[in-house]
Fold MerR family transcriptional regulator.
Amino acid sequence: MNYTVKQATEIVGVSNTTLKRYEQRNLIPPVTYTKGGQRRYQDIHITAFITLRKLLKGFEIPIAYQLMAFAIEGQFNQANWIIAKEQKKLVENKELLERHREFLLAFPSHSKVIHKMRIGELANYAKVETSAIRYWEERNLIESVRDNSNGYRYYEPHEIRKTVVISFLRKTIYDLEEIRKVVVGIKEEDFNGLKKHYSMVIQNNEKQLATQLEAISIYVQYCHDLQAN
C-alpha cells in the first residue's frame, strides 16, 4: 500500500519536516517518488518511522539513529551488540542506585563500621575518578582532613556519604550548584530526605527498562520485515 506524506504524518504523529529529516539521514529504506516529485511511502516505511519513534523513547538519539542505520545496512549482529550494551548500562545503574540507597538510608547505623578513607579508597567506593573527588573538593562540596602523623588526607564518614550522594546526583538532573543546595543541608543524623528522590529515580529506571524492551521488540520485528521485503 502507498501512503502520501499527509497520510504518513497522521499515522506516525510527526511533521513532514521530521519525516524528511529521517529520510535525509538514511534512517529508512529508499523512498519512491511520483513523476511530479511527490514522496510515496509503503508499509515498510511506516513501520520504520514507528520503530524509530519507539527507539527514541527508549534510547538516546545517537543510539536510536545508529540502530536504524544498521537495520538498513543489514548489520543486525552489530545492532544486537549495541542493544546488549545499552541494557547492561541499565542493569549497572540499577545496582548502583540500590547500593547507594541502601547505604544512605541505613546511615548512621553504618557509621560504626564505615571508617575514614583515603582518596583512592573513596573513589573506588563511590565509583568515580579521583579527579572528580578533587574537583568537588575544590568546589567546596566535600572536604578532607589531614592526618598529622603521616601527612595523608582522609575523608570522614560524613564526607564519604556526601561523596556518594554527589556521584549519584551527577547521574540525574542536578548540576553542581543544585547539588550544593542538597549537600549543604545534609545532617549527620538524617538522610531520609533523599528517600523520595531515590525512589523516584529507581522507578524511572524501571520505566526506562520497560520502554526499551518495547522498542527492542518492535525493532526486531522491523528487522525481520526488512529481510523479507
Summary: Confidence is low (pLDDT under 50) at residues 108-113. Strands lie at 32-33, 39-40, 145-146, 153-154. The chain has ten helices and four strands.
